Amino acid sequence: MLQQALQKLQKEIGEKSKDIYVNHVGAFLIKHVKEHPEHAAFIITEGKTISGSYNFMEAEARKRKARVLTDEEGFRIVLTYFGIPLQVEVKRTAEPELSISSIDDLL
């Protein structure tokens, strides 16, 4: 199941290689699922995509009336979108090439 999850994520990243959001969040999800292989089933859920998590994150930010989300807040929303239990600590291990600081930056 872990390999299926990794393949699904890598496929979407490859198909949308110029999409900064997909690359940034995809890298996070690959690292997360490698560290928590028990979450692979959540990643391969039919209809759940990295791109779909953007729409979910945007809706959550609007509900909160937040123009800016930290990486931690954003990644927690992504995990929620995929149905992954949030008892897991979300940590940023490396500086991304481009930090997504505003939903408007992605539009």
Which keywords apply here?
107 residues; globular; 0% strand; mainly alpha
Quick description:
By secondary structure, the chain is an all-alpha fold.
Structure description:
The protein is mainly α and 107 residues long. It has one domain (2-106). Helix content is 61%, strand content 0%. It is built from six helices and no strands. The protein has helices at 2-15, 20-35, 40-43, 50-64, 71-82, 103-106. The longest helix has 16 residues, at 20-35.
SSE series: HHHHHH
Globally, the shape reads globular
Kindly state the percentage of residues in helix.
55-70%
Distance between the termini: 33 Å
Structural class: mainly alpha
Q: What's the topology here?
A:
Layout: H1 2-15, H2 20-35, H3 40-43, H4 50-64, H5 71-82, H6 103-106
